Each structure stands twice: as structure tokens, then as C-alpha cells.
Amino acid sequence: MKTLTVDVAVIGGGTAGLGAYRAAKAHTDNVVMIEGGPYGTTCARVGCMPSKLLIAAAEAAHHIDKAPGFGVYPGGTTEINGREVMDRVKRERDRFVGFVLESVDDIPAQDKIDGYARFVDDHTLMVDDRTTIHADRIVIATGSRPSWPSAWDHLGDRLVVNDDIFEWDDLPDSVAVFGPGVIGLELGQALHRLGVEMTMFGVGGQVGPLTDPDIMAYADKTFSEEFYLDADAKVEEMVREGDKVQIRYRDKEGESQLRWVDYVVAATGRRPNVDKLNLDATSIKVDARGVPVADSYTLQTTAPHIFIAGDASNQIPLLHEAADQARIAGDNAGRGKDIRAGLRRSKLSAVFSDPQIAMVGESYKAITDRLGPCGCFETGVVSFENQGRSRVMLRNKGLLHVYAEQGTGRFLGAEMIGPNAEHLAHLLAWAHQNQMTISQMLDMPFYHPVIEEGVRTALRDVNAKLKLGPEMIKHCMDCGPGC
């Protein structure tokens, strides 16, 4: 049995683990990082990067399909070669992973401990029953994994998650995607546009991460026009028959339907990897899901010397959030008793569907929970259906809501579906983090003709509703037509 004594032990070698390790090393050299699986990040291996590669291929095919709307008719029949699509996805994915592994290779060998860690007590970790680590401070950065109902286990290898999709050598003929959330919408729509027969089922009517009922209804309608989406499906039975899955369900009209698919894609959420850490051996307080309770500014758990970062914290499972949390948790672990509150940026999330979905700052639900549905805020609205630049590009689908506080006129947040939502959201997130008012945002420059002019329309709408600006003009011409 090997025994080590360290200042800081980081459990996990992904985005949060690597970030926490580097932040802690700025204060002490006596840091180890423990990883039981492959080093690297969920983002590079099975998350944001390979999914965007698949989406990029789907967009290329979709642009060809849209060309006749401009009077452009590509010659011949568009052929989608699934093997070539997946070959590029995997090649580029491996390239991104390689960059991450290069940084891991630069970490001294004595700082890397291979194996799975579990707590023995508040300061002691056991790694694969062969190494005991006594640590003054500990950072939990164990990430998360896909989850699905155990009743689906009988589907065997016909049940896949996003991790499995990026190992395919070819595209299947048909899939059923369960879960119209971020992962489900992105991968499901991409597969559909690449010629895969795709059906999408949800529960409870939820579409994407949205909380604004009007924006969600618009998203439901828009995606349903492109492919079969039932956000509140009544699935009666799923049975594996050979290399197919038979799904019996009630359609939106209540009629019984039977569908055969090659794969069932489970996009039903992710589970923090904390269940095998033996947290019962510690003084850490956990929530109802078994996840450690932590301060969002210091990332301290209820055991002051133990911190948690990234997807394992179950706060906001996004790469930029994991990186921020890693810096805070690792920095505080490295400092020891000199605990400091870290910078928490304004919330920003995006779904790379088409149209894209994005959320900034406080969500509609968070605002109404805090102020009540008839509370002291107003909503500015713009539709992208008649927005000038959006119509020029035949991308004129979408709806944006911006929320502002009565009295102060402070910008509270936004939810949207629409063209270039990822870029619009960044502008709004910067404004939110700077605690700008709607009037201050309207003082910013807007070029013509750009999609961003739609943001200004929504801001003018909410400014008028706040009684801080003039009533909206039906066809404003101060910067040209269609703004």
C-alpha cells in the first residue's frame, strides 16, 4: 500500500479537474490529480466539439436544400455519405482531444494518480485500494455521465447516448430521440438533416432549457414543422426485436402508432459522478440528489476544506462554467485558509439548433419566482419573422423576449429562439454583467442591416412599456427599412 501526504488532492482530470489543478499549483507544488478514466474533457471527447462537427455537416446539407428559395438550383441529387460524415467528425474530434492531452502530458508524472478515488474520512482518500492519500484540502471535479430510465436497459446496444453516436462509423437509417433538451435538439435535428429518419419524444412539454412559455411554444411549433416532435409523448411500449426497436405510442391526435427504429437515443439528462465517492464517510452535507451542497462564490462544501467544481456540482453543466468554478475552487484550495469569493459571470447558455436557442441572465422562471408573474418587471418582444436581415437570408424564424425591472429600468435577462442567437446572447450577457439599464443599452451603436437590430426593437418595446421611452413606431425608418 502506497501512502502520500499532499496539500491539495483534485479528484478528476477533465475541464474542472485540470483547471483546479493549475489554479492550486499557483500556490503550492504539493498537488496531485486523480483520474480513473481517460484524461481530457467531456467537451472535446463527446460534448460540444464533436456535436458541432455533426451540426456543421447537417448545416451544409440544409443550405443546399434551402438554395431554391433564392432561385438557385444545385444540379443533381444531393448525396450524403454517412461514412465520410462520421469519419470527419471522429478525425476532428480526435484532433481536439489531442490538444487537451498535450497539456496533460506537460503535467509532472508524480502529480498524476491513476485510479478511482473514494473518501475514507474528511482528509483521506483511497485510490483503487492501493494508494492512500492524506490531503489537507480536496477538490471534487468528477464530472457527470448520461442517465436514462433503467427500464430501457433491455434495449442493449440499440440504446445509445451522445458518447456512442460519436463512435459510429456510418449513419443509421432511423432513430428515436428521447429528450428534446439541449443534447436531444442538437443531435436529433442534425441527424434528421443528414437524412436519418428521426422521431423526437419528450415529457411534460419541455422544449430546450427554456422557461418562458411563449418562447417555448414558439420553439415547439418551429421544430415540429421540420420533424416529428411530441414534447409530451405517450409512449406505451418499447421492445427490442433483433437489431430494431419497436415503439408503440399515441400521437398528438391520440391515435395509436407503431414505429421501428435502428436506435433509441437517450438524451434524458446527465447525472453528477458523486455516487461512488463514499461521501457518507465525510461531514459533507448533500442535497436530495446526493450532490454536495456548496457555496456558489467560494465553491466550498459544508466541509470547509473540501471544494467542488464543474458538472459534479450540478449547478450549470457548461464548459465555461466548469472552467470558472475550477479556477475558484482550485485557487481557494491552494490558498488554504485565505478563502476568497470568485467572479461569477452572468448566466449564458445556447442551444446550437436551427433556429438557435439562448438564455441570458435571470430566466423568466427565476424572475417570476422572485417577483411573481405580475411582478415589477416588463417584457420587450420582437419577432424575427419580419426582421430585415433575417428575411434577406431566409432565416426569419424566431422570437426574443427581454426582461427589465420597473422603476430602475435595469436589464434582468432574456430568452430567445432565432437566427444568430448565440451572438445576440453574448451582447446581452455583457450588458447584464455590467448591470446596464435598457436606456444605456439603447445608447449603444447598432449597424444596418444586421440581425442585432432585432435586439434594439425588443429594447425599445420594453423601454416604452416601462414608461421610460416613446411608444413603438410601427415602421421605424431611422436606420433604414426592415430594422
UniProtKB/TrEMBL annotation:
| Key words, A-Z | FAD, Flavoprotein, Oxidoreductase
Q: Which cofactor does it need?
A: FAD
Q: What residue stretches are annotated with the Pyridine nucleotide-disulphide oxidoreductase dimerisation domain? A: 349-458
**Gene Ontology MF annotations:** dihydrolipoyl dehydrogenase (NADH) activity
Under Enzyme Commission nomenclature, its number is 1.8.1.4
One of the Pfam families matching this protein, by short name? Pyr_redox_dim
Q: Where is the FAD/NAD(P)-binding domain?
A: 7-326
- UniProt keyword annotation of Flavoprotein present: yes
- Which PANTHER family does this one have? MERCURIC REDUCTASE, PYRIDINE NUCLEOTIDE-DISULFIDE OXIDOREDUCTASE RCLA-RELATED
The family this protein is said to belong to: Belongs to the class-I pyridine nucleotide-disulfide oxidoreductase family.
Protein name in the entry: Dihydrolipoyl dehydrogenase
Q: Which species expresses this protein natively? A: Salinivibrio proteolyticus
Q: What is the lineage of its organism?
A: Bacteria, Pseudomonadati, Pseudomonadota, Gammaproteobacteria, Vibrionales
